[in-house]
Amino acid sequence: MPADAAPAGIARGLWVFSRPNNDPAKILAVGITLCLVCSVLVAGAAVLLKPQQDRNQALAIRKEIVGVAGFQADSAQQVEQLFQQHIETRIVDLDSGNYAEDIDPATYDSHAAARNPATSSALASDQDPAKIKRRPDYAPAYLVRDGERIKTIILPVYGYGLWSTLYGFLALAGDGKTITGLTFYEHGETPGLGDFIKSPAWQARFHGKLAFDEHGKLRLAVIKGRVDPASPEASYEVDGVSGATLTSRGVNNLLRYWLGDQGFGPYLKRLQAEGGKT
Ligand SMILES: Cc1cc2nc3c(=O)[nH]c(=O)nc-3n(C[C@H](O)[C@H](O)[C@H](O)COP(=O)(O)O)c2cc1C
Questions:
Q1: Is residue 51 scored above 90 in pLDDT?
Q2: Which of 64, 78, 109, 157 is deepest in the core (most CB within 10 A)?
Q3: Given 42, 71, 100, which residue is the final one in a domain?
Q4: Domain assignment of residue 20, given as a range
Q5: 193 lines ligand 1 (CB under 6 A)
Q6: How confident is the model over 209-246, as pLDDT tens digits?
Q7: Within this chain, do residues 34 and 147 fall inside the same structural domain, yes or no?
Q8: Nearest alpha-carbon partner for 209 in 259, 150, 275
Q9: Phi/psi of residue 83, each to 5°?
Q10: Which pLDDT score, from 0 to 100, does residue 6 have?
Q11: How far is the C-alpha of 234 from the C-alpha of 208, rounded, in Å?
Q12: Ligand 1 pocket mutation pick from 197, 226, 239, 246 by most atoms within 8 angstroms of CB
């Protein structure tokens, strides 16, 4: 066999690396090998880091829930402690407003359920102001109790703003009517415009507002412009943000959706009737 003749099989694969650096076959082989090694490393890292990412995501959600419930947590450990000690997770059947005792809150994922036609229902466009397309049959409610009575109810809320789906939590007092907090933890609205939804000062404007009137009618509204304190509607209305009216409208739509008949409306009506004892 001549000195530079190519051997066969695996030896041929390795032989190519012994060729001079400017040999096109070696350049190609080195490039392909590098790509393969890098893709194995990236895929391996993604698989290995997934459990940690899931834990971090769950912790971030718990931090929001604990925060909107009114607790102050300065570390991950404190978030976990406060969540375990004070937050009771219940799964709500959105149609009936009753608790679903047979679903384990520790493993139930309402966002995954909303993607599955077997565990969700499609919304007609006139039923879907929040533009979520499908509604899960069951959704979690997070409760803080004061003895037997419910002190705070924290509800997951989401819906479309201008560019993106906004994800947050709305907190209500045990009367099922009075808003005690609102937070958004994920959105893709424009920095400096639609991202006002993360502003604590704007979120604070919801504190003490009433979602429903004395007849149980849904009244909460994020309005365009400023609320007139002298208006009879003032206790139900929250200022929109000028220059970001489309995101403000998205917040209005998603809150009204989740407080309404297709969302947690039946559950909140039950709480209102039972005086926060359920
Ligand atoms: C690049 C760009 C990004 C924008 N991002 C947002 C946004 O995130 N949220 C929003 O409500 N409006 C956003 N706007 C403005 C809207 O198009 C619209 O003009 C505004 O919501 C109307 O508010 P106004 O009626 O109070 O003026 C953006 C506009 C531009 C040009």
A1: no
A2: 157
A3: 71
A4: 6-71
A5: yes
A6: 999 999 999 999 999 999 999 999 999 999 999 999 99
A7: no
A8: 259
A9: -60, -50
A10: 60
A11: 11
A12: 246
